[in-house]
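Hi everyone,

Forwarding the result from last night's run.
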Amino acid sequence: MTTVLVCATPEVESDLCHTLFWRDDLERYVADRTEDAGTLALATEPHIVVIDLALRGADRLITNLRNQPLPHPVSIVALSHDPADAADHQETVGTVDTVLSLPSSPAWDDSLVQVLQVPTRKQARFEVRFDVLSMLRTKPGTHRGLVLNISAGGLLVECAGLPIHPGDDVTLSLPIPGLGKPVEGRARVVRTPVQEHIGLRFEAFAGDGDASVRHFLATLAAQQSSPPA
């Protein structure tokens, strides 16, 4: 599920309640102080952060988010009360994904649709081939699949004969190449693009599983960027 962190006053929050940011399929967290939003960002690892530029510390929060080591890229939406806001924050505004003028309006819709689609597009995906063991959390039985690609957010798995649908939760055992033991965790089915292919979004890992996946991805990225011998 895409996670949205909103940093805005209660008045602005009331306005945002009527926008796509309040869709039922989004997980939301709200803070009315930038200090609290920074703490929430570390705890919730949001995909999208919405920041009211009029709040004290808005520039610092945006800078920190851009430098913060999260497991996935973050899309930042800045909210401007008037054109002077953007002018006063010109340097910071240049680092955000989009600036929206308050109050909200139907003109926001196209921009919001694009922003809400960005998190999955931004994640670097690497083509790989290794086995994965998966099990529906509500049904007994283990199924073996083949991982086709992996990102910080999830996997695309080829798994024949598994009666699975978007929204289902599964447990995973990932024997990542080079590791002494499999990475254990759980994931949620987010798509079934073609028959026997399942898109899984990571939900949680046991132990240091998250760090192991990040290290594996960093190794793959280094291998791709290295010039051929």
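The CA atoms of residues 28 and 207 lie 26 Å apart.

Cheers,
N.
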